[in-house]
């Protein structure tokens, strides 16, 4: 049930021509173009005529009208998880059926005969993988198991076996992922390698043999890379790192006695290195940066090219093969060009002629609007730590005394990125500056910065956010009396903490799928997250002994200090943060007669994915922000099928 069930047959246009309609910003884009193995076709994600994301395939040399939709997603699917009894809600209407989530990822199989894609049921993260037979159009669920999550092992994909792939699935034990070999042509499923209970990742070699494993030690949070020389050999330890280090297996090298890994050992940041599997020694550093982590790579790491994107100069080139062997590479590349203030564009690059042809724009309707720019700045926290922030400003507006929307990322072991951000542009087009803070503990800035956030929820992490807001005010960019705080997931914990601990700074608070108590969010986790308990113990709170810390820093215990309107929303299928977290915060505010709005999106998980729900949510935010800090207010968007259930609304949203 939504308060925004508005029927429309036309394109929604705000009264202000500079305000970008929500359906333009939050509709499904065209994206993820991928060439077929023979280079004759291109597949990509694009909306269907009824505006649902699907996979389309067209001849590369053909026209757009030659494209064929090969998946059949229409947002009908599995039954939703009925968590409502857990929070004792009396629903006034029949719950909507849960929907298969949008298709967010796909790939070609090596022969080019099949498209593989994945979906879960309305955000429940029980991932199923499907195979589309492009000749017949038939779609097969490769992992047709209830209450099971599947993960594709990328290292198992090979042109030598185009129909065979490895998947992790937690069929046998909900807490452990075993390796299964699946034939996408026949659907045959064979258990290959059982998880002894402590393996978090697996790796295949070029012979389709599972020979690598990442072992997690529950006792101390450390990890070990284990390998075996063949499927008949015993597993042996190769490399070990403590919970204060980071590492990951990336792939076996062409020499089966070597492996590419990410590792922070002997380095302030994570590096891409080649190790010898006999003794774990580093044979070569492939890529590193003194301040930033290498997060991964695409392609063959034996042929790596680096560019400094500030100067556009190639800074290092390492080729393991001579130029005569470059002929095995495809003559065409897919290249996507991204900017912060416009639609991304995808091109086909012809390597022989060094020319590019536009394939498509991701969001072509953006061209008619003026877009703000995202500016990076470095702010000094009160203890001297450098904090990176991104500040998106409205287009063609003097950056002086603007209202500010603080949008805090989740994780907290995550980060924002410079580039296109539909939410930041949404706020900018309504006249707000939008601030994104990479507080201590954010990912990607090295292990010292990461662990500076250990056990700093509601403390130094929160100070970084506060100090960044004060910086924008002291620079004259932001009006001190017009600041709103919001976030998603852990960012919502920060939002509530900001409203409680620095109530003089904010005029309203936004909480989307947020934790509200440190202890309850760390105890209510799904079975296969059991290794995270030690990580949560080390980085968040001692689950057994820190009751005092929990009460000092968790915003739930400080609801009485919140003096501004709060909007709270949660996905009904969220397995990452239990919906009870939002329920308890809502009840605390309601019992104190605080202004609060509380919604449940019954067909969502740990984020808002469906465009109809995003439009519903952001229209409510638009009304709240306009009321509290005075930005622009447009007209209601064309929401027709939102899964929103309005539980309580004393704000009037």
From TrEMBL:
Keywords, comma-separated and alphabetical: Hydrolase
Alphabetical list of SUPFAM superfamilies matching this protein: alpha/beta-Hydrolases, DPP6 N-terminal domain-like
Pfam families from the UniProt entry: Peptidase_S9
GO BP term, pick one: proteolysis
GO molecular function, one term: serine-type endopeptidase activity
Annotated Peptidase S9 prolyl oligopeptidase catalytic domain residues: 420-630
InterPro entries noted in UniProt: 6-blade_b-propeller_TolB-like, AB_hydrolase_fold, Peptidase_S9_cat
Keyword Hydrolase on entry: yes
Keyword hit for Hydrolase: yes
Superkingdom of source: Eukaryota
Protein name: Peptidase S9 prolyl oligopeptidase catalytic domain-containing protein
Organism: Marchantia polymorpha subsp. ruderalis
């Amino acid at each position: 049930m939504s308060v925004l069930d508005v029927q429309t047959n036309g394109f929604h246009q705000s009264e202000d021509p500079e305000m970008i309609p929500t359906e333009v910003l939050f509709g499904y884009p065209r994206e993820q173009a991928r060439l077929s193995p023979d280079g004759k076709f291109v597949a990509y994600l694009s909306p269907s005529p009824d505006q649902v994301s699907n996979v389309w395939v067209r001849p590369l040399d053909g026209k757009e009208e030659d494209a064929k939709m090969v998946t059949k997603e229409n947002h009908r699917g599995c039954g939703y998880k009925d968590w409502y009894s857990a929070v004792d809600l009396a629903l006034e209407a029949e719950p909507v059926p849960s929907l298969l989530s949008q298709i967010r990822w796909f790939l070609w199989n090596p022969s080019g005969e099949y498209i593989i894609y994945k979906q879960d049921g309305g955000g429940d993260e029980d991932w199923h993988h499907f195979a589309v037979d492009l000749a017949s159009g038939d779609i097969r669920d490769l992992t047709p198991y209830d209450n099971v999550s599947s993960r594709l092992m990328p290292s198992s994909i090979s042109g030598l076996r185009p129909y065979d792939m490895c998947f992790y699935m937690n069929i046998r034990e909900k807490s452990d992922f075993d390796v299964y070999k699946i034939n996408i042509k026949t659907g045959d499923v064979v258990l290959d390698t059982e998880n002894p209970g402590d393996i978090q990742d697996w790796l295949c070699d070029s012979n389709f043999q599972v020979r690598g494993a990442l072992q997690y030690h529950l006792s101390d949070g450390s990890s070990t890379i284990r390998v075996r020389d063949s499927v008949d050999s015993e597993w042996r330890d190769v490399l070990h790192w403590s919970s204060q280090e980071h590492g990951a297996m990336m792939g076996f090298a062409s020499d089966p006695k070597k492996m590419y890994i990410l590792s922070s050992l002997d380095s302030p940041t994570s590096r891409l290195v080649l190790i010898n599997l006999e003794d774990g020694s580093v044979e070569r550093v492939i890529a590193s940066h003194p301040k930033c982590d290498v997060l991964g790579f695409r392609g063959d790491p034996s042929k790596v090219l680096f560019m400094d994107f500030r100067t556009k100069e190639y800074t290092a080139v390492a080729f393991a093969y001579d130029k005569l062997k470059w002929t095995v590479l495809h003559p065409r590349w897919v290249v996507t060009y991204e900017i912060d203030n416009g639609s991304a564009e995808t091109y086909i690059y012809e390597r022989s002629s060094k020319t590019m042809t536009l394939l498509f724009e991701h969001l072509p309707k953006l061209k008619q609007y003026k877009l703000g720019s995202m500016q990076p700045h470095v702010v000094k926290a009160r203890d001297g730590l450098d904090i990176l922030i991104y500040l998106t400003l409205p287009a063609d507006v003097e950056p002086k005394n603007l209202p500010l929307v603080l949008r805090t990322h989740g994780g907290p072991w995550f980060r924002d990125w410079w580039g296109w951000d539909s939410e930041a542009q949404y706020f900018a087009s309504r006249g707000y500056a939008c601030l994104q803070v990479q507080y201590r503990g954010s990912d990607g800035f090295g292990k010292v910065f990461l662990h500076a956030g250990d056990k700093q929820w509601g403390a130094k992490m929160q100070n970084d956010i506060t100090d960044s807001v004060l910086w924008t005010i002291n620079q004259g960019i932001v009006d001190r009396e017009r600041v709103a705080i919001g976030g998603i997931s852990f960012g919502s914990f920060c939002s509530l903490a900001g409203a409680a601990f620095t109530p003089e700074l904010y005029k309203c608070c936004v909480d989307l799928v947020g934790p509200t108590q440190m202890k309850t969010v760390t105890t209510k986790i799904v079975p296969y997250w059991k290794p995270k308990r030690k990580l949560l113990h080390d980085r968040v709170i001692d689950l057994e002994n820190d009751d005092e810390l929990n009460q000092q820093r968790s915003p739930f215990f400080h609801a009485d200090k919140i003096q501004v309107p709060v909007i709270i929303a949660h996905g009904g299928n969220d397995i990452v943060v239990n919906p009870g977290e939002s329920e308890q915060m809502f009840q605390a505010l309601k019992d104190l007669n605080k202004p609060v709005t509380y919604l449940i999106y019954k067909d969502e998980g740990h984020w808002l994915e469906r465009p109809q729900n995003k439009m519903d949510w952001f229209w409510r935010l638009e009304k709240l922000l306009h009321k509290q800090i005075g930005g622009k207010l447009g007209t209601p968007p064309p929401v027709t099928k939102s899964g929103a259930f309005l539980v309580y609304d004393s704000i009037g949203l």
